[in-house]
Amino acid sequence: FFLMIRRPPRSTLFPYTTLFRSVYGATNYAIIQGFDNVQTQEQVLNGIVYLINNCVEGQPLSDKRVRDAAAHCLNIEDIAAIASSGAGTPAYNIATPLVEYYADVAEHVTVDVEAANALMTEAGYSESNPLPIRLIVVSSYPDWVSACEVVKEMLEQSYFSVTIEQVADTSRYFIQDFDIAMLSVGLTTQFNSYAQLYDDSTGLNLAGANDADVQAAFAAMTDEATTQAAMKAATESRAYIPIYYPTTFFAFDANVNPGPFYTQFSAFMYRDFSWK
User: How far, in Å, CA of 257 to CA of 14, rounded?
Assistant: First the structure.
């Protein structure tokens, strides 16, 4: 990765310098923090890793009882720790803390296999008649693959029978060729951008969700209270089960002063670099 920064020019022809920036994982970050020639910084990104449920009509997870049952099987803290290699913050809201008017208003679903079994029984499943589901994950993310193995174990505590399929790219996510899928989604710091996840016209409705209550909640947003109500409605629809907020670890040359972050979608950029 590299950034272009402005410096006091030695000539009028070359007023910019290339600054190399490296991004590290949590394991190496603690070591790098001890180096004298770099400065380090960590930053939560404006994105969330979700388990996406296929809510298309006629699919098994279009039944809200099944989605709620799945949620009751999942220990979010454990999944987040594995999927992020210990570097993510467990998420309980469809939005990130960087979103305007963010509040932790959504229900934190507790692990309760008995409650899951009761919901699955209502939906027509049992120990002798479990629901077969396909869980897809991008193979190039080994931590996600490991986390999906744990998700499989958790779901199979109830009346689910899970097959994990590793995929090479995200093409199947966009045609809902899955029952559950793990994927990271990054949107803007305005919560109204999350309405795209529930709108077929945007191409981002990966869950195939068509929930009139959620759509009405987005349409009603005018202030902090109604935005938080939409956050709650969207999260508790369980079309997208949030898992964790990713953290990125940066190391910069010790001779620069990095300015503050500003956000553009899920990416972060520095501004106003200067030399010490």
Answer: 20
Beta-strand runs (E) in 10-130: 16-20, 22-24, 38-44, 47-53, 89-90
Tokens in use for 112? Answer: 């309760």
Q: Where are the alpha helices (DSSP H) in 125-236?
A: 142-155, 212-219, 224-236
CA 265 from centroid of its chain's CA atoms: 13
How far apart CA 264 and CA 67 sit, in angstroms, is 32
Q: What is the pTM of this model?
A: 0.83
Nearest partner of 206 among 248, 229, 178, judged by Cα: 178
DSSP letters along 20-55, please? E-EEE-HHHHHHHTT-TTEEEEEEE-SEEEEEEE--
- What are the Cα distances from residue 103, in Å, to 24, 108, 214, 224, 239? 30, 13, 17, 9, 19
235 within 8 A of 249, measured Cβ to Cβ: no
Closest CA to 145 of 79, 99, 96: 79
| Alpha-carbon span 80 to 246, nearest angstrom | 9
Taking only the tens place, the pLDDT of each residue in 51-92 is 999 999 999 999 999 999 999 999 999 999 999 988 889 999
Cβ neighbourhood burial of 36 (10 Å; 0-12, 13-18, 19+): exposed
